[in-house]
Design brief:
Elements (H helix, E strand, L loop, with lengths): L1 H87 L5 H27 L15 H24 L5
Length: 164
């Protein structure tokens, strides 16, 4: 029995050494994986930050496109309001010509004001973009001028002479 106990102890010792070697290898693999994960996390963080910056840039450009759409709609309404006088005179009663032109010109003034409002008062502040925004004072000045043009067109519709 002593011999079988000695063999059993020897076999247990070999198994313990083998388990220790496997544990050491697993620890090394875990350390390598931890380093790779840490490196990937830093890269993902950098990538996520960059995606956020690019999203902020896209937000600025989208706001500028929206501003341009408001101004374009206002200019089209202004031209339509002025053109309505010439186009509709003699076709419909004068009161209808003046009211149609007035509504279109007033709508154009609304569009110019809404363009500035939507561009300047954006709500929740977006992340800081890389691109520069159009200065608000420039938007207010340009659209203020366009509102004055709309007011002059409205006065021309109301008080200008009606037949060419």
């Amino acid at each position: 029995m002593t011999q079988s106990v000695g063999t059993e102890i020897k076999r247990s010792a070999e198994q313990a050494e083998e388990a220790a070697a496997q544990t050491q290898e697993a620890a090394e693999n875990t350390e390598i994986a931890a380093r790779k994960t840490a490196k990937a996390t830093v890269q993902l963080k950098d990538s996520a930050d960059r995606r956020t910056e690019l999203a902020a840039d896209r937000t600025v450009f989208a706001a500028e496109r929206t501003y341009a759409a408001w101004v374009r709609t206002g200019l089209a309404a202004l031209a339509s309001g002025i053109g309505a006088k010439k186009l509709l005179e003699g076709v419909v009663p004068d009161w209808m010509v003046v009211s149609t032109g007035s509504l279109l010109v007033l709508f154009s003034a609304f569009c110019f004001a809404a363009a500035v409002w939507r561009q300047v008062f954006v709500g929740a502040p977006p992340p800081v973009p890389d691109v520069r925004r159009i200065p608000p004072f420039l938007l207010v000045a340009m659209n203020g001028f366009l509102v004055l043009v709309a007011a002059a067109a409205l006065m021309s519709l109301w008080f200008g002479r009606a037949g060419g």
